[in-house]
Amino acid sequence: MKLKSLLLFFSMSYAAEMLAQQPEDPTPKRKNDHGAYTIEQAISDNAQLYTISFNSLAFITGNYGADCFFPPGKVADFFGFQYMRDNDSNKMGHNTDFLTKIATNVISILHEDQLNKMIALAKEQEEIYTEFAKKRLVLIKAFRLSLEGNIPKNSKGLNKDAVINYCSELYALDGTLSYRRAEVIGGIVSSLTPEQIQAMDKLNFGNSNSWPMLPETLHKESMSHRANVGVMTYASELFSWYKGSLKADIYFCPERHGTYFGGFYLKDYPAMGNHGYSISTTLTGDAGKAFLEILNLEQREMVKNLIPLQKNNLLEIVKIRTSVSTLLRKFLSGGKADRSEVIELVKNYGKQDGEMSWNMVDVLTRINQQLTLAQREKLKKLRNLEILPKGAYIFSDLISLPEDIDCKGLF
Asked: What's the whole-model pTM score?
């Protein structure tokens, strides 16, 4: 016990030291950048425990299609938008109109040539987004087969190294998207006129109430749905990146990793196509806690043991995000970053995500085998969402259930 306590002490001391030694933000300090949600809170034991528990509930009571649901904004997320969303003093960060509201304001400020660069980027990256989503389907199928005990014959289960390497290659696409986005958006920011900067400065980073409600002026008919989503995402992130900080870019929400288990579907499905809908900020914690209470003592400890198991992964992720965000911010001041360095860093990011995900599947597979009928009934009631997709999702777009996904290489 003394050795475990000592190791935990040094682990937490390292975390505090590493977070304290983040490089100085090269951009000017702005107001409203001291919100309640921080990277320290995101990687805290409680935040991680209830997030893992919520995802466990979604995974055990869900299906393959629900596991595939994934907000596109969680890809290439080094631009401060999640921090701005979580720390909005107007408490509207999780409203379905939040992104649209800031994106339409930014689009109204941009000149035609600047907007056209953004549209060209969205069309250029559309195929990479699709490739990213399709690669997730393979990983998710393997995880779902493991949970349900339908593993290939003569297999001992998921191959940990194969999962880690697969996630690394998946994240290489994330790095590609991130680098190119920073390059183009950084160029647009560098081209802002004094009048445009003045208009941007009227919009408050920390208070969405300062953003006028403007009509959408983007000509959707000239591009695909995914490209349109891309332009709106880029516009919102241009603002959060330009008006934010390095601290905002490094930040992630607790559910940013291990996104293959249906938690986003369970949380976001009621908001789909529902303008003005605010997603509950307490659902994850409340349902996660209730999930643990349904488990028996042994099962509960299995979930809790994931927290120290993934601590080093989370610390490494913070370190990686600090390096990547620092490199990408060079584009904001007219500089350049080394593309290969960014990609390699993000591939390592994927390895951390892959190891955490494998650990979670390993534990939940064992728990799922032990659940009683009474526990399953309680979990189904706790889920409180009977709708399960008959198909799968490419991000938030429903497609027919794919029949040709080969995931044998992950076993």
From this structure: 0.88
